[in-house]
Amino acid sequence: MNYKQLTLAVSLMATSTLSAQTNVLDVDAKKAGAPVQSTMYGIFFEDINYAADGGLYAELVKNRSFEFPNNYAGWIISGKVSLRNDGPFDKNPHYVRLAPSGHRDKHTMIENEGFFGIGVKANEEYRFSVWARVPDGGTAKLWIDLVENATMRDDQKIGNAGLDISGKEWKKYSVVLKPKRSFDKAHLRIWGDSKVTTDVEHVSLFPVDTYKGHENGMRKDLATALEQLQPGVFRFPGGCIVEGTDLATRYQWKNSVGPVENRPLNENRWHYTFTHRYFPDYFQSYGLGFYEYFLLSEEIGAEPLPVLNVGMSCQFQNDIKHENEVHVPLDQLQPYIDDCIDLIDFANGDPATNKWAKLRADMGHPEPFNLKFLGVGNEQWDYKDNPAFTKRLKIFIEAIRKVHPEIKLIGTTGPNSEGWDFDLLQPRMKELGCDLYDEHFYRNEQWFLNSGKRYDNYDRSKKAPKVFAGEYACHGKGKKWNHFETSLYEAAFMTDLERNADLVHMATYAPLFAHVEGWQWRPDMIWYDNTRMFKSVSYYVQQMYSTNKGTNVLKLTMNGQPVAGQEGQNGLFASSVLDKNEGTIIVKVVNTSKTPQNVSINLNGLKGELAAETITLTYNDMDAENTLDNPNRIVPTKGNLTCAAGKKNTVINDQLPAMAFRIYKVKK
């Protein structure tokens, strides 16, 4: 053997030894640690990327009440169509009059394009409804068509029904359409009577099969995906839309409740933010309002967490030099404080004694929603020379606590995870007596890999607030989409959330939803078009945690240290919990290295040979993602292994694939 051959042999032996190195993890299964809160892993909803209208909210008609600034936005009109503004709903006064054209071969018709088209499925039922009248009295016939405009077939119609209208008074009419074929870009046509004038308002089309069957309901596949996450908390109605570009366009919950026909239109803060992805017809119908948010929280089993305005418009979009022009002066905050107190009454109050609770009951929910948490302000911050946010928050906290001391109040540390503004705000949340504060971090791969011990040394004194990691996602540097690699790093970071469950009480990935034709921000957890959806890899990471969160933390170490991607830990991150209800020990291990890792997990406190269930998320292409056409490319897989009976304890011996997230579940 020559020198080169000897060197190569030694090198191969060293490589073999390194790859065979076993990473020994110790789990203290004898002592249950800090409780894992039921709210630990949840979801954050914001109406960005057409998440509400055109997304989760199942309404298929855009500008259904003709209230957009361009009243005919979303509509094509022909014949004698006129706009009027003395309709039956004071907050939505506009409607259209369909008059006879005066010629047998000219037709009066209005046609709605929906949100990037109207998606319908063959043989499923769709409920068309409209408020209508015959202003001159008598009866009229409307014809309702679902059409495929560009078809080569003899007839554009894919669904059709007639609707009889009678009398001078406004009434609600409905009819069910059943398309004979599927199409994701349909339009809706309403033909006026050829001889009689008809007025129509609040034109609506919903799938009959919504989530839980509600008429003003949610799109079933999207809401079901939320339920399948088993979320502990549901934050709504968003982040920046709570603030608005200006105060006039902030989200106002009182406009989002009551009869859906009389909820006023609101300008969405996101509709003109990004000129490179510009959607000037992006508005909020408020059809998905606070009642629907509370009801959805209840039905998916999550604690509701509403966030309200703190008297400030979006600081990203407004110059603090003109503070009292863009934010509410301190002596004029009372209406905003009243919004908070009235919301608590709406959610929890007695209908017999409170008008807001009575409204809730009138809407169909006499029982309270059991609201426990309230966020005040979204992503506000102080300036070094001006505590613009906290001087307002202090007034809110003091006023709300006088009336509702039982509600846990949530502040914020602003838009950044570190830096001067974060360092300024964090101690102020403690000074103000917040119960929790909201941290946000959209950061790159290296930040997530370097933050495995972020919460280990946080303030744990008696008066220190708990942490709500309210918006986070790993944004790949130069690769800002939902690919496997960044989702894996999110899984690694979440071991730190779990290990520090005594401090971290809530965590929600963001954003939640995105329409493939209407997105402005990515990555996002769930994507969809008009008829299909897919769950991103990040969705599956969140689901693996939320459905395996356990009840108590178990201490897990390697050589006495937390397993957090530290030097000598071969890219491993890990945490462990006990589920007292099931008598199960759950160990989560993430391998962020490019090579497989041998692991030996000592379950100290268990003895004998035991069976373990495994759940594994891994893929061989770091840039790969799930898509509408291939929604199941990267999904968790289940398996089983036998835990060995060691001399002192039960041991899990396994080889974890490169770039993989694996959960081990062992019955005690």
User: Into which percent range does the helicity of residues fall?
Assistant: 10-25%
| Main β-sheet description | 10 strands, mixed
From the alpha carbons, calculate the radius of gyration and give it in angstroms: 28 Å
Question: Mean pLDDT, nearest integer?
Answer: 95
Number of strands: 34
- Alpha-carbon distance between the termini? 54 Å
Strand content: 25-35%
Task: Please tell me what the overall shape is.
Answer: globular
Number of helices: 12
- Low-confidence stretches are 1-19
For this entry, give a set of tags.
single chain; 668 residues; alpha/beta; ten-stranded mixed β-sheet; eight-stranded parallel barrel; 12 helices; globular
Structure description:
The chain is an alpha/beta fold. About 20% of the residues lie in helices and about 30% in strands. It is built from 12 helices and 34 strands. The strands form 6 sheets. Strands 26-28-29-34-31-32-33-30-1-27 form a 10-stranded mixed sheet. It has an 8-stranded parallel β-barrel with strand order 2-14-17-18-19-20-21-22, surrounded by 6 helices. The longest helix has 18 residues, at about 5-20. The two termini are about 55 Å apart.
Strands, helices and their partners?
Layout: H1 3-20, E1 22-28, E2 41-44, E3 75-78, E4 80-84, E5 95-99, E6 109-112, E7 118-120, E8 126-133, E9 139-147, E10 157-166, E11 171-177, E12 183-191, E13 198-207, H2 220-228, E14 233-236, H3 240-243, E15 266-267, E16 283-284, H4 290-300, E17 303-308, H5 323-326, H6 334-348, H7 355-362, E18 373-376, H8 390-403, E19 408-412, H9 420-432, E20 436-443, H10 445-450, E21 466-474, H11 484-499, E22 504-509, E23 513-515, E24 526-528, E25 533-535, H12 537-546, E26 552-554, E27 556-557, E28 572-579, E29 584-591, E30 597-604, E31 610-618, E32 637-645, E33 650-656, E34 660-667
Parallel strand pairs: 1-30, 2-14, 2-22, 14-17, 17-18, 18-19, 19-20, 20-21, 21-22, 23-24
Antiparallel strand pairs: 1-27, 3-6, 4-5, 5-13, 6-12, 7-12, 8-11, 8-13, 9-10, 9-12, 15-16, 24-25, 26-28, 28-29, 29-34, 30-33, 31-32, 31-34, 32-33
